[in-house]
Amino acid sequence: MLFLLGLETYQTQKLSLQDALQISSDSMKNWAPQTPKDLPWNFLRKLQALNAEARNTIMVLDLPLDTRPVEKESQMEEEIIYWDTAEDISADIYSFSELPTPDTPVNPLDLLCALLLSSDSFLQQEIVSKMSLCQFALPLILPDPENHYHTFLLWAMRGTVRTWGSQPPRVMGSFREDSMVLSRAPAFAFVRMEVSSNSKSQLLNDVLSPGHRQQDCFWHRDLNLGTNPREIADGLVEISWFLPSGREDLDIFPEPMAFLNLRGDIGSHWLQFKLLTEISSAIFILTDNISKKEYKLLSSMKGSATKYYFILSPYRGKRNTNLRFLNRLIPVLKMDHSHVLVKVSSTDSVGFVRRVRAIITHVTRSPCRRVSVEDMANAARKLGLKVDEDCEECQRAKDRMEQITRKIKDLDAYRRDELRLQGETWRKVAQVEKELCQIQWASDPPEKYRAELRHRLLELRMQQNDHDPSWGVQEFISGISSPSLGEKQYFLKWMEWGLARVAQPRPRPSPEMIFTLRPKHCGAVDFSEPFWPEPLGVEHFLREMGQFYEAESCLVEAGKLPAGQRRFAHFPGLALELLLKGLPLELIDGNTLSPALRWVTGLLKELHVRLERRSRLVVLSALGVPGTGKSTLLNTMFGLRFVTGRGRGPRGAFMQLIKVAESFSQDLGCDHILVIDSGGLIAGVRTEAGERFEREASLATLIMGLSNVTVVSLAETRNIPPAILHAFLRLEKTGHMPNYQFVYQNLHDVSALGSKPRDRRQLLDQPSDVGRATVQMEKQGDGIQTLADLAFWDPEKQHIWHIPGLWHGVPPMAAVNLAYSEAIFELKRCLLENIRNGLSNQNKNIQQLIELVRRL
């Protein structure tokens, strides 16, 4: 199977997340797989794009019609069996690319298992996380028939975080966000014994789906390729959850519940079934026949706290035999006749599903076990199953994380005592550096004032340099300095989750809370306070490292510290390793809303050294008001890791690096794409001219000025943030204008999807009071009142996109909208086409980018 899918080379050196995310010529194609070797990559691309049809991996052969021989299905099967058993087989005989059928013989579950077996731990985690967003059932126990052991995927599940509501909803705290690994819920398992005429996966989907919409969480026999025989996926255990929205009229169940599905017969996979009996509140066994062998196995379950239910099709099986064995099992399994359900072709399907739901609800209302995925993993260990998280590298990284987080009792006190360089001194430094920069452009700068500012800056930097990194910061530095690349990556992931767990619970901020600034007693706007309470994260430890590097570099430049006495010169190299492995790094400090210039340029210099000849860059940025979906858009387009959700993450602007495949870099014109997310820097509210507006406009100008391509994400057609319009006006003066795309998301009017260029012009011709005020600030005159009046605006170009909403229905059980995925793909293709055709600003090398950062 691995050879057939082209995955045999990834058994020693596993497929990594960076391998899966690099930009290639295929990134611009919306194509169907033509050979089995295309299937894994096709699945990964669709999954990254949150495509609801990612599992529909039908292979379409691109052969001329007159050259396609016709063979019967039975002949093909005989040929496959012959190839599989032959002793002397040439290297390419397993390839089905020559077969004249448009359908691949690979079952989608086999594809998933083969891909997971060929992926490293971090790609496995990404696959599971994306599958969760697509509402697909997740692999929990991964079979490996070749090596005869099964792996419980605890680590792969760690990144699965979901949000759900409670009934009845309360004003505060009605929504809960938690890791599905840690959250406890009743678990219900569905298994098959020998043969069943009823599809348990289809039954599971019916139970989980609201009446008006079918949801295919579990792949089943009625879907495309669902009837293809499984070659390696038998023994796979999948898990999915029902999560309530908090609305009684929509919710099937009032609380979260886990549903488990064992692929294959319980007699052949007794270990997995034994685990299910120890973690489930109830097990539903689907069968047509109860044989003597299965009766003996089930009899061994005597004393189990799990409730058992049978779903039979007696007219297809041996009715009398079933009844005889059932009567014997009733006292053993503590059942009664209500635990036996009959479903035949004439059974009312809707009524049957309603009955199964009623049984599940009844079980949860009585005392029953509630388990988390961690609890399931503990039970799996006792039964001898391998748990992916138990490797030495992962456990060492976890121990180091726990040593750090154990000392965090109060977040504010920890920031004050352990992250000392990010306090008031850093805010004063940022203000002095800004004043020095402004004086630089004055027509007649006062030398005395400039000298005073420089002296004040050196004093502040000396104060910072007098400190040593705290114990927690030193442990963090040791964690990311590990010679083991795997341990380093494990440590960062553990730190993300560990810091999220120790964060003090706060109510989710409202939009009013997010964008309200505290006025000082003198009436001026106070920028020292964040727009929302910023959670403690990995970026704060990296920011602390950056400040140690900044202070030391400033003193060396001023001759106050000999270069030979530097202690922190290696910090940018440590941070660069994280950037190259996919961690977003802070470009603009979210605390002071200022760029740490020496730290950023130090990172870029290290990047230039590391990339050597492959240092051609394109910078792509996304700006917009928090909550308009720009981070989700970037993550979906390129598989990135920017924090999503208004008010949840850090406020700074972050950057991530995407590798372009060497085979495609010459065609695209660059070796890497640097992606910048503006985070929560742009408030987008109607504000008078002042320090806050000036700060937002300056940061928007900086980000757009660095960019070859800019995506402006907007929530409403008339809501162009004034700071962004201001940045366009400033950049128009300099002649440095990026290729730009305006993206309107979550439109309520579906007809907007088909808007023509003429309609787009009309949207931008609507007058805006904010736009007029912004233009007047720049003293451009009254002739410019809308974006369409600007000199760079070309209505004939495809500048405006309408992206439909991500969800089809009401979250958390809503399906992903296929139209969202398709629109995001078209936008991505357009951006890459513009880069390839040179419509963006001239591509830069890293040295040119460093100089541009300094100038801007």
UniProtKB/TrEMBL annotation:
Name the keywords, alphabetized: Coiled coil, Cytoplasm, GTP-binding, Nucleotide-binding, Nucleus
Domain of life, per the record? Eukaryota
Annotated localization: Cytoplasm; Nucleus
One Pfam family named in its UniProt record:
URGCP_GTPase
Q: Which GO terms describe its molecular function?
A: GTP binding
Cellular component per GO? cytoplasm; nucleus
The VLIG-type G domain extends over 614-854
InterPro entries for the chain? G_VLIG_dom (IPR030383), P-loop_NTPase (IPR027417), URGCP (IPR057365)
Q: Which residues form a coiled coil?
A: 387-414
Which family is annotated? Belongs to the TRAFAC class dynamin-like GTPase superfamily. Very large inducible GTPase (VLIG) family.
Protein name (Swiss-Prot/TrEMBL): Up-regulator of cell proliferation isoform X2
- Species in which this protein is naturally found: Bison bison bison (North American plains bison)
Q: What is the lineage of its organism?
A: Eukaryota, Metazoa, Chordata, Craniata, Vertebrata
